[in-house]
Write a structure and sequence with these properties.
The protein is of the alpha+beta class. The chain is built from six helices and three strands; from the N terminus they run ααααβαβαβ.
């Protein structure tokens, strides 16, 4: 909510066709706006949650696919578990219980944290 897209950029995106520009701030209660200002890292997860799509391929703006990524929705791990994540380059601790809460079997858990700039998720699961 503190970094709105300019009307000119929104118009350029809409001109691409099949694009809807929405403000994350509009999807959140006003009371959450200050919290978002302090914890901008939450924007990625919230954007996925408020997306109108059930299945989401989230890519940070600094990610550049080298081929059409739609095949990821057919990957066996995704079709079985409804989630694809990639290991992060940096070692950090995952919050205790996060993998259990997500239902990720121990054999599929990365040793450290996962990259938050790319994820494929079926929100219905």
């Amino acid at each position: 909510p503190h970094e709105p897209i300019s009307p000119a950029i929104a118009a350029e995106l809409a001109a691409l066709g099949n694009v809807t520009v929405r403000s994350l701030g509009d999807a959140l209660p006003a009371a959450a706006h200050d919290n978002m200002q302090q914890r901008k890292f939450l924007a990625k997860q919230l954007a996925i949650l408020v997306s109108s799509f059930q299945e989401v391929l989230f890519l940070d703006s600094d990610n550049l696919p080298l081929r059409d990524p739609t095949f990821l929705f057919e990957e066996p791990l995704y079709t079985q578990h409804g989630l694809l994540m990639w290991p992060d380059f940096w070692r950090s601790e995952v919050k205790p219980g996060a993998w259990e809460a997500l239902g990720i079997p121990a054999a599929l858990r990365p040793a450290g944290s996962h990259e938050s700039g790319q994820v494929v998720v079926d929100k219905a699961r």
